[in-house]
Amino acid sequence: MRDLFNQPTDRRGTHSSKWDLMETLFDVPPEDGLAMWTADSDYPTAPCVLRALQEATDHGVFGYFADLSRYEAAIEWWMKTRHGWEIDPSWILTTQGLGNAIALSIDLWTQPGDRIVTFNPVYHEFEQKIRRAGREPVQCPLKREGDRYELDLDDAQSRLDGTEKMLIFCSPQNPSGRIWTPDELRAVADFAARNDLLLIADEIHHDFIYPGQTFTPFDIAAPHARDRLIVLTAASKTFNIAGQKTGNMIIPDDELRGEMVQRLRAIDYAPNALGIRMVTAAYSPEGAEWVDAQIAHLDTNRKTFDAAVNAIPGVRSLPLASTYLAWVDFSGTGMSFEEISRRVRKNAHIAPSPGPEFGPGGETFLRFNLATQTARVAEAGRRLQDAFRDLQ
Ligand SMILES: Cc1ncc(COP(=O)(O)O)c(C=O)c1O
Predict the structure, then answer these.
(1) What is d(CA 4, CA 16) in angstroms, rounded to the nearest whole number?
(2) Do 183 and 148 fall within a single domain?
(3) 286-316 core/surface letters (b: 16 or more CB in 10 A; e: else)
């Protein structure tokens, strides 16, 4: 099964944002460039998902559809067997992916001018979505302690002025790969309660858990927070099907869920039939086996990458507990961010995500997507060593 992840693929010219926008956005030539920015994977999805699509195209009829019961049962099964989380299928609302779910939540539950809290560095789109909606981000820095980030809730508290309405929390955390402990999740729930914040828990990366690590869903750690909790999950990263734009809001509270149901009706949202088929097929015993094999593959990739970049003086890839996104600190090189970025893009021909996009704490970082063939990760390691050869 592991070889499925090492078959060479060429995504150039396939409408892939990661590969086909690389030159426009990062000035990295597609001929020999390595696209390591946006968070999708370069290998095909699981065979069970491909078969479900094949069955759909064999049938050939793509009319309106109804009845999400099998889809909801598959999600219920996945949360229970993979995460020990018992949900009621009626809690599940479907959206056009989680970016859409975040934007909808901001739009429904806050007003223009309201302040929305995040803990940074964090997935850059949180800030973008807050700003685009005319709300104000309150970016509270995480504390870096060695290779780890810690919450600093006292510092966060001191940044609030009482006009905050929402907290968008990433768990596991993108970009650091940090998995929060149940105690930390409870502390975040208490912080939200103290400040009367609606709590959006973005758990999109929850299936990428490396050996020896344990992920706890927010709702299990802090069931007392249910009256303010919106959990976001999706099969999109796990199964590399982000282009099908299907994600879920899991909302245990009847009142909050009722408000979102009404909004989804008002904007005439209905899920995409092919996305539903793909997720239903993915969340299955066969899909679970594929995910386990993928994690073993990614475990090799993170070790390969870290060994190469950590050999460059002044460069540190923080050890990942989760996600396939290596968060690499170049501060020890003493170079400006512009020089670091120039060497990586123009000398190594690699396009990673720029750390400053992730807000306070990301100034000296680049984020490298490792969800690709191991040979590509090794090649990236060699190119980075060459680009900083003068430091060795
Ligand atoms: C934490 C987090 N949330 C949401 C998204 C976007 O999800 P979607 O593709 O479902 O819109 C990403 C994508 O990288 C992410 O890392």
Answers:
(1) 20
(2) yes
(3) ebbebbebbbebbebbbebbbebbeebeebb
Nearest to 122 by CA among 178, 184, 174, 199: 174
Instruction: Give the end of a domain, one of 254, 284, 314.
Output: 284
Q: Is 251 helix (H, G, I), strand (E, B) or coil?
A: coil
Pocket probe mutation, ligand 1, options 118, 119, 123, 245, max atoms within 8 Å of Cβ: 123
Work out the number of other CB atoms within 10 angstroms of the CB of residue 211.
7
Domain count, the chain: 2
For ligand 1, the distance from its centroid to the CA atom of residue 98, given in whole angstroms, is 6
User: Alpha helices, DSSP H only, in 331-390?
Assistant: 337-342, 374-387
Q: Is the pLDDT of residue 40 over 80?
A: yes
Q: Are strands 316-317 and 247-250 parallel, antiparallel or unpaired?
A: unpaired
Mean pLDDT across the stretch 316-337?
98
Q: What is the pTM (predicted TM-score) of this model?
A: 0.97
The two beta strands, 325-329 and 92-95, are: unpaired
